[in-house]
TrEMBL record:
Located on the platform of the 30S subunit, it bridges several disparate RNA helices of the 16S rRNA. Forms part of the Shine-Dalgarno cleft in the 70S ribosome. It comes from the Bacteria. This is Small ribosomal subunit protein uS11. InterPro entries: Ribosomal_uS11, Ribosomal_uS11_sf. Keywords: Ribonucleoprotein, Ribosomal protein, RNA-binding, rRNA-binding. GO terms for cellular component: ribonucleoprotein complex; ribosome. The keyword Ribonucleoprotein applies. Belongs to the universal ribosomal protein uS11 family. One of its GO terms (molecular function) is rRNA binding. GO terms for biological process: translation. Part of the 30S ribosomal subunit. Interacts with proteins S7 and S18. Binds to IF-3. PANTHER family: 40S RIBOSOMAL PROTEIN S14/30S RIBOSOMAL PROTEIN S11.
Amino acid sequence: MGKKKIVKQSSSDALKQADKIQNAVARSKSKSVNKKLEHAKVYVSASYNNTSITVTNDKGDVVAWTTSGSLGFNGPKKSTPFAASKIVASIAEKLRKSNLRSIDIIVKGVGTGRDSAVRSLSNQGFDILSIKDVTGIPHNGPKPKKTRRV
């Protein structure tokens, strides 16, 4: 098709980008949850392009949410396992202030961030009562997209 252009990233650019991500994580930690929670549901949505985590109370009201894009990741870095672990770290920091003890995890999607998000949630010290996978599976629906050949 054409030549692939290889762009090398200098160390100063990498440091600037790491600082941006650290600042975004610090900003998201500053916004805290005011309500006291005993139990919550954590929804992990991992697509090919992005990973998002939403925390709701038992009624279904959204308590906190974060996406990898809101933390400063852009482009293909948004769907990486590293971005998912950073999302979990920022959500856990918000939830620690509300004395949350137990969570139910509901995972949806086929992205690469889903496993690392669940592992990171288990390492944060919450009592995990259940892990559910609600990824949609078609019963012979429309023809799927063709797979990418890179």
